Amino acid sequence: MSQDVSTEAVLEAVEPEAAQEAGVAKKKLGWGFWLAVGWIVLIVLLAIFAPWLPLKDPNENFIDIQGKGRPPYGPSADHWLGSDQDARDMLSRTIYGARVSLVVGFSAVAFGFIVGGTVGLVSGFVRGIFDKITSFIMLVLLSFPALILAILITSLMERSLWTIALTLGILSVAPVGRLARAASLVFAEREFVLAARTMGAKPSHIMLRELLPNVLIPMSALALLGTAIAIVAEGGLAFLGLSVEKGSTWGKLILTGANSRQLEEAPWIAFVPIAALFLTVMALNFAGDRLRDYFDVRELAL
Amino acid sequence: MAGTGKAHLRDASDILLRVEDMVVEFPVDRRSVVHAVSGISFDVAKGETLGLVGESGCGKSTTAKAIIQIPRPTSGTVNFQGTDLNTLDDAELRAMRSQIQMIFQDPIASLNPRRTVRRIVSEGLVVSNTTVSKPGWALLGLAVILAVAAGFTSLWVLLAGLLAGLAGGFIILKGVFRPSIGGCSDERVDEIITAVGLDPVEAAKRRPHEYSGGQCQRVSVARTLVLDPEIVICDEPVSALDVSVQAQILNMLEDMKERYGITLVFISHDLSVVRNVSDRLAVMYLGKMCEIGDSDLIYAQPAHPYTQVLLAALPDPTNPHAGAVDALDSELPSPINPPSGCRFRTRCPRAEAICAEQEPQIAQVGTGDQWVACHFPLADGS
Amino acid sequence: MNSPKTTGVLLDVNEYSVGFRTERGLAQVVDKVSFQLERGSTLGIVGESGSGKSVLNRSLMGLISSNRQVEEGSALFDGEELVGRDRQNFWGNRIGMIFQDPMTSLNPVMRIGRQLFEPLRQHLAMNKEQATERAVELLTQVGIPEPKRRLRQYPHELSGGMRQRVMIAIALAGEPELLIADEPTTALDVTVQKYILDLLGELQTDIGMAIILITHDLGVARGRTDDIMEMYGGRVMELSPSEELFSDMSHPYTQALFSAIPRVDQPKHTRLTPISGAPPDPIEPPSGCRFSPRCVYAQDDCTTTLPELRGSDEHQFACFYPVGTDASMQARSTNTTRGHTATGLKIQTAGTS
Lengths: 302, 382, 353
Known about the structure:
The structure holds 3 protein chains of 3 kinds.
Chain A (H helix, E strand, L loop, with lengths): L6 H8 L1 H9 L5 H19 L16 H4 L21 H37 L1 H16 L2 H11 L4 H28 L2 H8 L4 H37 L10 H7 L3 H6 L2 H28 L7
Chain B lengths: L14 E13 L5 E13 L3 E5 L6 H8 L7 E6 L2 E2 L5 H7 L3 E4 L13 H5 L1 H5 L6 H17 L4 H23 L8 H10 L4 H6 L7 H14 L4 E5 L7 H18 L2 E6 L2 H7 L2 E6 L2 E7 H6 L4 H8 L40 H5 L4 E3 L5 E4 L9
Helix pairs in contact in B: 5-6, 7-9, 9-10
Chain C lengths: L8 E14 L2 E14 L3 E5 L6 H9 L7 E9 L2 E2 L13 E4 L3 H4 L6 H12 L4 H14 L5 H4 L9 H13 L5 E5 L7 H18 L2 E6 L2 H7 L2 E6 L2 E7 H6 L4 H9 L39 H5 L5 E2 L4 E2 L8 H13 L15
Parallel strand pairs in C: 3-8, 3-9, 6-7, 7-8
Antiparallel strand pairs in C: 1-2, 1-4, 4-5, 9-10, 10-12, 11-12
């Protein structure tokens, strides 16, 4: 007889409308969400329009021994976020670094979602041999240590933006695929799918019109989180010296400032890109969480 | 009671649906099989309501799904307006689907939670008209090519690929989420939504979870009506609803039946509800047909012991059959290994040796439309 | 075995209310409910979803652990006040409870025997041999064949009806003074339902316990209870001995419910009289009588004043225009003439009742 009954369960059992009203109030996204979105939008815009902004050249060395002594220079009117040990402007390097980091992050996630999501959705609905094969492949991908795979790929190919994005993309196929498959399985069992079949829907129709809109919800919440993970992953790769060869990324910037001498004397060299990375990842995580809560009404019940 | 026999099938020309010797079996593991439905036959005339009753495990829901061929029965014929549905291939079957529709037990789960109610109702029309946008696919294809090419050229190619992909995806998804409805007027959809008792303007804005169970069931009915079916199979449509709402939905079903000229097969475990809506009644037990015929006759004077048990078990003590028999206290036999001969014999107060050896055949009771499969049917006064 | 008193009032509930604080306001789910339960008798609590019957029950038992709950009024169990008291440890073996879905009330990963032992060893301090013997006794009492074998089985190995019987056995393990059955047969087939209800009746005679039977099915309540308390919108609408509720129904809601139910003794295609509208919002209920927006008799005072329970001690109802009285017929004809009730509910002039 030790049964705990929560308010929501009681209210729902007794008065669905009341429970709904009580829950509706929860559904606002909140100002934090919009703040996070604002930061993301800002960073993206800065990254896209970088060449047209009044920024210093990120690769030029602004050495000014007479005026300021030897680099690294601290934050000043000349260099808003300071410069690194080769007198390159931190502000512009960070913004230019955002370009690669963000592109890598978004493309990797896009690849993972499109490939993984599609495969997962179809597997969950079709089942049978197709499902068995794809599940096996996903399992293999998941079991593979991510780092080893990254090292493997990057050591075999030229380390360009494309290959790094592809690597991270491949790594994200399996977790997304599993989520999509799980969601697809749940929804495929529901009566509205059966109802669609009784109306004469073809399997392609069912997958696109009935399952996809429902499966997209948990997946889109995951998309933002996934982007955050991809960006951090790129940072990690850069730290190991495995990221893109040309151009700067946040990870590479952090690496530049990460040895103990710089950290002691000129901590901003590392901390500026770290801060940028941190804020972006946190914004993505937070927004992703809030989105998940927002959509997590009784409709989902995964 | 073992429902074999087709003596009760009628010859009349207005028979819409005729099921003969339907068998549905599900393999459970390599050796055993669940005998969900084992050789039942019945027919439904145009404009009639056939009530199909039985308790859990009797196979009534399985029968319903087998009629619409989801999944196809293991054997037997399902004859709809002269065509045996079993002989149709998938494409032909899909073309016929609009004629036989179904309403489900859980009102909210049978509606797509992501869609507005009005779109759900008009969904049937979309089903027959969906084509995924070709320009959308073309753009996606281009995107893939560009993305691959980007590996060998430059970042800009990758960006162009991403853009093409986004555009293509957007077009396809737009087609997926907001398809243009061909074939039927908005007026007809609105008319049907109003006919079932809902407001079309609200319906265009709201999603299923904003409606109550009763309202969702109305939506289900509207959805089937849009397709202009001949037969609607109702699988426990009011079991999940409150008493007062139940009455609303039952009345609405009767109204729709009259207005749109549909024939109903009404499946339920609730004998009082079935009494109210049905012209004819079929009682099932463990995959077999016990008794079938005019519902007035059966309710007044059940011929099969199981029917009598069901009627006697109705909770209201003022029901005319209360106290006629004692409650059954043994368990339902397993459908994997059902009893030989008459399947009801293990719980039947009238069972004799012959019941284990020989399956009873359906035979007429008296001279009216009442048929029973029993070696010792209840006669007048017993 | 304790020797119980066999007469007197076991449960005395007075103006008992339960609300929940929500973002929109206080949801008054149970509103000043009063009733008395005699020892050894059966009370049926009847209501649809939203009536508050389940919350009333669970709240009385102390099963709702939410800090948003607001409980008021008084409920005396055998003279001891429940409200304001921590009830988790109060009941012991004085109460047994069975719920609608035996699959979720029984622990699916625990064998039946062990689940039976819990109350026996916890409340009655039996050792293993005594507990086993008693468990077998209980299973036999509820009509489960091969009880010794069942002790070692898991809930999923039993059918729905059997699981419900096991729940009853567990509930009765401590020979309680009160058994609360919350929709015990709703999920079961009608033949199994009859068996379970008959069983409860027999057990009541054997043990001498009181039963509160909560159901939405008037037919179930009719044959199996001494008194029926009908709830709507958290309030008591009518409270009377069972048969009198049907032979002499006083509240319009009772009458409406009765007309909405399909009956076996009515001919096919009988037009049912549904109750239009929907249950009231517990946060913003209608002013005056909660049923007034759906009541065909509603007059102006129904919308302004909340009717208290009135009538005789035996048969109480909360209505200014009880069915069958002159006032009621007057009210009905007023509404029919003007085409609508005081709350705007349209009345068809070709009146069907």
